[in-house]
Amino acid sequence: MNRKCMGAVLNKINRLLKMERLQWLPVMVMCALIINTLPAKAALTASGGTVEYFTPNMFKKGSQVERIQRAIDEAQKYKAKVVIPGYDAIKKSAIWLIDKAILLPGNTELELDNCTIKLSDRCRDNFIRSANAGLEISDVKPLSNIRIVGKGNVLLEGAANPRATGDHNKTLSMDPKGFSQSYGTDAGKPGENQKGGWRNHAIILAQVDAFEISGIQLKDYHAHGIVLERCTNGLVRDISFQVRQAVTIAGVEKQVLNQDGLGVRFGCRNIIIERCRGNSGDDFINIGLTDTGVPAGAENVNVVSGSVYKGATDNIANIYLQNWQDFYSISHRAIRIMPVGKLRIQNVFVENMTINALSAQGLVAEYAANIRGLFVNNIVTYQPVKAKGIRDASFRDILYLGKGDAIDVANSDTVVVDNVRKALF
User: Fold this and answer.
1) Phi, psi for 405 (deg, rounded to 5)
2) Which residue of 68, 160, 195, 351 lies most exposed, with the fewest beta carbons within 10 A?
3) Model confidence pTM above 0.85
4) Measured CA angle at 325 (ends 229, 367), to 5 deg
5) E-strand spans in 159-275?
6) 30: how many CB neighbours lie within 10 A of its CB?
7) How many other CB atoms sit within 10 Å of the CB of residue 110?
8) In angstroms, what CA-CA distances link 142 with 62, 69, 110, 132, 207?
9) Residues 6+ apart with CB under 8 A from 310
């Protein structure tokens, strides 16, 4: 027991002595009872009584992910945070190998402390998901106050031999080819879904207000890295993405598709995304979504909360992308804004960016008539800025290091293009 915990116990004993004039023998018995009621190794505040954190190392029974979930469930009772440390003292392992998603209820702070979390080859699920959403959950209830905070070196890594990869449009194959197939050992297995989908994403928050995701490296995940669905008032910070559109199986490279970095989907508003880096397979960030008519809780869909546009509440607004350095997409766009169909996107701020020369494309705004307020400032790029037909926008201080025209946007009454120039070297 640490000093804070012991101090709390002694203070309680002292109060009992003063109130009850207890003799020492009964007090010793009572002391033992008090100690035994405390969660193992729980840290108490100086006031005595509020548990500061739980870790899965406090629980000896169950798989690694079951013990993590147990820590989360216990933390809810005490309004405490959860810490996943760098070492599993029960399994004697420096890797937390999980078989299913870690589910986060509202009012949860999950601290990842210099740890590695890896998906097992049995896992066909996310690393982390808000607990309000999942298979057959058709009514996604709102949650609030979820923080996922990495401290030190934190790595979330995909499976060595994944059961499924790719989005809902991809068919699983043990030897995938072309643009319609992605690797997965569930290919051809009776009773297993033969498409990809939202279960392949690394982190999903659905209908969460007031959130933070920070300080994490995502490596070789199975579809998208971070997906925000109908989330508001949040911060995503210091995230690194590392994928290669492949997984090595018995020395052979197998194709993995749809490894986007971030997805900002229906209903997202008031979100800052800053200091991201690394590379994606597909779009590094994709803001928007296509209404495919598939409701929440279904399997063959790219978002767990449903790919059905519900009107103005599903419009996207006030997204701030800032201070991203040396990032790129292997095969698609570095930044993609795509308000398809009835979806409207308002006020996207893109500033202080360096897009790596390796990116297949740069900033691309599609369906520009559905965008109001695109503000691009202080960008270095090797790929042209594409936003043909955009209105209510500004493009300032852009240094273009590529070939051809730097931008396909012209000055107008509603668009400002200022100091966009091509480098002379």
Assistant:
1) -75, 145
2) 160
3) yes
4) 45
5) 171-173, 181-183, 203-206, 208-219, 226-229, 232-242, 246-249, 252-255, 262-264, 269-274
6) 15
7) 21
8) 30, 20, 19, 7, 5
9) 266, 267
Which residue type does 142 have? P
Q: What is the Cα–Cα distance from 305 to 228, expressed in whole angstroms?
A: 10
Other CB atoms within 10 Å distance of the CB of residue 285: 28
Run of H or E residues at 33: helix 24-37
Residues 6+ apart with CB under 8 A from 289: 263, 265, 266, 302, 303, 307, 309, 340, 343
> How far is 181 from 270, CA to CA, in rounded Å?
35
Residue that is written with structure tokens 């998906």 in the block = 119
pLDDT at 26 over 50: no
- Please tell me the predicted confidence (pLDDT) of residue 343: 98
Where do the domains of the chain lie? Answer: 1-51, 58-422
Residue 358 token pair: 């390796």
CB 259 within 8 A of CB 282: yes
- What is the 3 state secondary structure string of 287-310? EECCCCCECCCCCCCCCCCCECCC
User: Mean of the per-residue pLDDT values for the chain?
Assistant: 90
Report yes or no: 6 and 23 within 8 Å, Cβ to Cβ. Answer: no
Q: For 201-234, write each residue's pLDDT tens digit.
A: 999 999 999 999 999 999 999 999 999 999 999 9
For residue 350, give the nearest of 273, 238, 278, 286 by alpha carbon.
273
The structure tokens listed for 275 are: 């200091």
For the segment 348-364, what is each residue's pLDDT rounded down to a tens digit?
A: 999 999 999 999 999 99
Using alpha carbons, select from 74, 5, 4, 3 the residue that is nearest to residue 34. Answer: 5
Among residues 243, 234, 240, the alpha carbon closest in space to that of 273 is found at: 234
